[in-house]
Specification:
2 helices; alpha+beta
Length: about 90
């Protein structure tokens, strides 16, 4: 599986309360269940006007299929080529 960052423009998402976010997560999970094992959701960050999500997927098409089934746009899909963190400097 490859790792992808997905930028979703969803106006007003930052104003959703915990119930609204839970409903969005349920909707996404339903689409993921239909597409398993081609795509997995790892986490999402709510930002002004949208979300930035981390997914594992076999390819970009699996991400697009999830967007179509869930109704959440995938405005920008970027494959992660490498990861670094503070411990990268140690080695």
């Amino acid at each position: 599986m490859r790792r992808f960052l997905i930028e979703r423009r969803i106006p007003g998402v930052e104003q959703l309360d915990s119930c609204g976010l839970a409903e969005a997560a349920r909707k996404s999970n339903g689409a993921l269940a239909e597409l398993a094992p081609r795509v997995q959701w790892q986490e999402s960050y709510v930002v002004d006007g949208g979300t930035v999500c981390v997914y594992l997927a076999e390819d970009e098409q699996a991400i697009r299929d999830h967007a179509a089934k869930s109704g959440f746009p995938a405005n920008k899909i970027t494959e992660v080529r490498a990861m670094i963190d503070p411990t990268t400097a140690v080695g």
